Every structure is written in structure tokens, then in C-alpha cells.
Amino acid sequence: MAEADWVAAVRTVRELAPGGRVLLICHVNPDGDALGSMLGFALGLRRLGVRDLQATFPGPFEIPDPFTGLPGLDLLVPESQAYPDPDLVLIFDVASESRLGALVDRLDTGGAAVVLDHHASNTRFGSVNLVDATAAATSVVAEELLDRLDVPLDVEIAECLYVALATDTGSFRFDMTTPRVHEMAARLIATGLRPGDISRRIFDSRPFGAMKLFADVLGRAQLDPTAAGGHGMVWTYATLDDLDRHEQRPYVLDALIDPVRCVVEVDVSVVVKQTAEGEWAVSLRSKGAVDVSAVAVALGGGGHRLAAGFTGHGTPGDVVVAVREELDRHLIV
Ligand code: AMP
Ligand code: MN
Ligand code: MN
Fold first, then answer.
1. For range 58-67, the mean pLDDT
2. Could you tell me which of 155, 249, 258 has the C-alpha nearest to residue 203?
3. In angstroms, rounded to a whole number, what is the distance separating the alpha carbons of residues 128 and 119?
4. What is the pLDDT, as a whole number, of residue 1?
């Protein structure tokens, strides 16, 4: 990332007048990186003395249970209560304006908008764009900006940034788990946070009903060995009725892709999750044979080369047919 972008971001934050209102926004249906990088940065601004501070995200105001213990949650407000015309807007883990929902209007009604992100597909829609596609998580970018603003890490900021880093690296398992990632993790852990407690909360906690729901959904998974140029695909779907039957909230489905992507016979895994009548949130993963980010972009979404998503329409079968067609167009090998 260009040094000039860092300089511009530091200047933009420092130029905030006393009493200036800051609105932090992350993407709809927030994950650990979205919430963690946003709240960690918000706590940093609080340490700098910024008092008029709100954090928010578009869509239903639901915090997944694993994240209800995050420091800084008191700064979160529903989008309906977010400053209509903030003096400064900071945007986290958002690759394009479509992920801002109705809050996209703050790009016009607010002051400068600083975008912190790590998606290669980022459309650079802010007035300052800190986009590092080599960063494992948005929290890597957030940590560097906090450092350049001379905000020392404390255990609360560190916990937020750690949750973000652990989420996006699949608990330090994926390829982007570079030396730089472990160095950052070391700095965060040195503040005194408890990695075991955090991992249990964000990865290893599930209601009994969610386990039963997973059993139903995994039980209907289908193998499609000839998809993706013969690299193969496994897919399944979950409906709103599945959630109702097991009395579960939609966020529990975010973890479903993990058992599905373990299937050794195939490269690509797909989980199709109903969000409304005829509308589905689709998760795509590849082990390296397909650029699923390109697949998702072709279908109106986005993401990373090996982990991406989009909003699908029709029946689960319709959605999977559309995915299957795109897979062949975006083979890496
Ligand atoms: P998920 O499968 O929801 O964990 O998402 C995997 C990746 O795809 C994340 O990096 C998201 O940023 C991206 N992604 C998921 N859904 C969408 C969408 N509807 N539009 C753009 N990007 C998405
Ligand atoms: Mn995210
Ligand atoms: Mn991310």
C-alpha cells in the first residue's frame, strides 16, 4: 500500500475537530473480522479522546452469540440510530458499496470516508482507501493505522483485533497465515489476552439445537464430482424452516461451511442459506482449483480467491446450477 495513503489516513483522523462525530461501519451480516477490526479501532479512537463515537452495520441488528463478549460493544448502535451526518466515517472489511446497505448514504452526507480493507476486489469507494490485499484480515490494516496514530495496544483493543485475525485465518490455518500474522498475534497475546478462552467462544461453542440443525443440513449434502472441470463440488442448503424447527438464529449457519469444506473428494464447497423467500446467502470455498472470488463477482457478490460469497435467487437447485456454470469459467489450473 502506498505510503501516501497511510499519511492521508493519519491526517484525516488527526484533523477531526474536538467534538467531531465519528461513525464506524462494517459490512452487513458482520463476521469476526468486520466486528473485531471495527470495535478494536473504535476503542483506539476512544483512547485518543474521541468522545462522539458510534459503531454500526447495515441490516438486522443481530450480534452473533460468539461475539457478544467483545470489548467495545457499548459503542454499537442499530443503523437507525447512527449519526445521519458524521464528521468522519471509517469503514471496515467492506469491499464494495453494496455491502453497506442503506448506510451507503453516509458516503454523501458524512465527512471524509476512510476505508480499511483487505479484499483484492475492493472498489476504492472511500475518500482515503487503505486496502491491502496481502493482509490476512482487515484488523492487520487497523492495527497499523492505530500504531501510526500512536495508540498503544491494550488488552481490550487486542482482543478485538485477535478475534478478527483468528476468524479470517481460520484460526491460523489458512495460507495467508504468514510470519507477519504470527508476529501480530504475538503482540496481541502479549497484552495478556487469553487465546484459549477466545477460541472456545468464537469457534468451539454451539447450542445443542444448532448441532441437530447441522445434522439435518449435512445429511442432505450432495457430491457433484464432475463439476469445476472434474475437480468436483459438494453442496448443501439450509432453509428458514430448518432454523425455525431447531429454534436457531441465522448466524449459526455461518459455521456450516467448515465441515462441508473438509470433504476430500472435491475442490469446491457450497452452502446455500435462505435469508428470505427465494433469497439465499451463498458461501463458496475452494482448495485451489477455482477462483471462487471471480465466481462470486460474476454472480453479483465478492470475496477472496479461495473464500467468497454472493446473494442467490430462486431455489437452492437454481442457485447451484448458476454456481456450477461459473465454476468452469474460473478454473485456476
Ligand atoms: P462467507 O462465506 O459469508 O464467510 O464469506 C466469505 C467471503 O466472501 C468474505 O470475505 C466476504 O467478504 C465475501 N462475501 C460473502 N458474501 C458476499 C456478498 N453477498 N457480496 C460480496 N462479498 C461477499
Ligand atoms: Mn468479513
Ligand atoms: Mn476480512
1. 96
2. 258
3. 15
4. 87
Q: Which of 99, 122, 279 to mutate to test the pocket of ligand 1 (most atoms within 8 A of CB)?
A: 99
pLDDT tops 90 at residue 155: yes
Read off the amino acid at residue 102: A
Ligand that lies nearest to the alpha carbon of residue 117, given by its number in the listed order? 3
Ligand 1 contacts (CB < 6 A) are: 95, 99, 257, 283, 301-304, 307-311
β-strand 307-313 against 302-304: which pairing, if any? antiparallel
CA of 189 relative to ligand 1 center, distance in Å: 28
Q: What is the pLDDT of residues 183-228, one digit of tens each?
A: 999 999 999 999 999 999 999 999 999 999 999 999 999 999 999 9
Q: What are 302's three cell numbers?
A: 465478492
CA-based nearest residue to 95, from 292, 270, 285, 293: 293
> 282 C-alpha to center of ligand 1: Å?
8
C-alpha 64/C-alpha 227 separation (Å) is: 33
Calculate Rg over the CA atoms of the chain. Answer: 20
- Structure letter (DSSP) for residue 287: S
SS (H, E, C) 119-188: CCCCCCCCCEEEECCCCCCHHHHHHHHHHHCCCCCCHHHHHHHHHHHHHHCCCCCCCCCCHHHHHHHHHH
Please give the full DSSP string across 30-51, using - where no structure is assigned. Answer: --HHHHHHHHHHHHHHHHTT--
Chain-centroid distance, C-alpha 62 = 15
Taking Cα atoms as reference points, which of 45, 36, 33, 63 lies closest to residue 158?
A: 36
Please state the pTM of the whole predicted model: 0.96
Per-residue pLDDT of 268-282, as tens digits, reads: 999 999 999 999 999
How confident is the model over 291-323, as pLDDT tens digits?
999 999 999 999 999 999 999 999 999 999 999
Cell of 305: 480467491
pLDDT exceeds cutoff 80 at 333? no
